Task: structure prediction
Amino acid sequence: MRKRFLTLMVLTLVAIVTMGVTAVNAKTLTIALQDELSDLDPGFGSTIAVNEKVINLIFDGLVEYGEGLELIPGVAKSWEISEDGTIYTFYLREGITFHNGQPLRAEDVKFTFERILDPDAGSGQRAKVQLIDRIEVIDQYTVRFYLQEPYSPFLLAMTFGIVPKDYVTEVGRDYFARNPIGSGPFKLTEWRSGDRVVLAANPDYYLGKPNLDTVVIRPISEPTVQAIELKSGGIDVATHLGVPQLEELSADSRFEVVSAPGTSLDFIGFMNTLPPYDNVDLRRVLYMATPFTQAVPSMYNNIGVRGYSWISPMLWPDDSEYMKAHALEYNPGEAKRLYEQLKAEGVVADDFVVDVWVASSSGPQLRLAEIMVTSLQQIGIRARTQVIEFGTLMDKMAAEETGVYFFGFGSDADPDFWLYRWFHSEGSLNFSKYADPDVDRWLDEARAVTDQEQRGELYKQVLRRALTEDYIHIPYAFLNDTLVYNKRVTGLRAGFPGHILLMSPIANVDVVE
Result:
């Protein structure tokens, strides 16, 4: 009896010591994001950048991003495309399970996309999949998509996270948005609004268990506070820092700063239905009167670079050399001369005032808007900034009330998603009401063409017409994708839109004490 008691005591001590070692050695990564999370349902919440970053840790898509934003197999181990480009057949990996233990099957894939397609559901991602005619389950691990017409960017839409049909049907959309279950490398364990979201490693992940045991996401909106938390050890990774914080942390040997050319663009738009902004020469005046090339480096130091096109140089088709060569240079004298000519011709009235609309929260956009107004005033053009809340700005743009507006967006890896929306006469983001029959035709053709080089040439024609002939927008800065992190973190990379790659086919982040 005494021997048995001693044996049990030794085993208990070993268990306690082992538990202590495990707790001490648990690897936790704490990341600060700019805003509070609101919705972790892939088909609905992913239109918000901070939601998307966390969604992509919890869910897997049929395809995933590889090096250089190449699309590679994810949940789908392979796929076939019909010769006419209207039928896509995906073959799923067997053995993948959701976080509740249920297998991921073709029915879940079908359900995922049908709920996004449902016009009554109100998904902001519906435009990316609206050309799907129907979805057919061939067997448990084979699913087939039939498109209404060829649509070359279709594969990119297959990066949406797959959701479990049975669970979502049982709990409903609203509950699922706050209590998601995916098949990704991490699973949600805690969500304290305004404080943190906690994710735990998925030990059954199809690529293997992640190096990290726990990921903590904290909403910290102020760049100064993110910097303070990074220096004090409250976070390991800062994702939203301003120029002063980046300069300070770059000089601190404890931290690593990684920056990659991003896909987010800041630009100026003109309302093509609001005279006199429908006049291309007035748009040229405003372009030449503003010192973009001189101002952007100081306004966007460490967080962005001068941009001339709608497509980031890191994406295809890269036409940056042509776009830069044909951009209008800062020439206040010529701007003044042309403006006086427009006044003489009656295009602009003597009492005309250029209203420059910009969101109060836009940072560098707001500062550049002020530079634009000052520059116009210096050559005798009456101008003023109209600084309003972002939501109000969106409403005014939709109502066609903003003659000149500062705006920005984050692009996808396929140019169609943003060129069609912004430049096609029926595009959902064509706030400027730009309409050019050639541009519409080129964009329609590019959707149907499967050859990437041929598509690229069509997109170049679109941008050369819209930006260097019609000047319907002035792209001026691409934002860098910049992360600053404690050097105990290894394997963290920048440059993947909508993602913080912690565990994927090309990444497995670790922390080293």
